Fold:
Amino acid sequence: MYFRQYSSNEATLKEWSRQLTIANKGNYMTYSTVENTLDHWKNILNMQTGTNIFTTYSTPESTIYNWKENLNKIYNK
Structure:
């Protein structure tokens, strides 16, 4: 499973939601804004990985970019 960035933040999170839901047998819902989704997922991902590597940055784009790197390291070992 490879995590990619798509043409919009919404499209990226929609696809990641699908991938994470399958991989973790959980429910990664998207919320009314990209920021709300990232903030909610941050807590879930940090708890599941037992780390604190998922943090939010100054913009959703920079958060998604950094998370993409982290997710690919975790799911593509």
Notes: The two ends are 10 Å apart (CA to CA). The first helix runs from residue 9 to 24. Residues 15 and 58 are 22 Å apart (CA to CA).
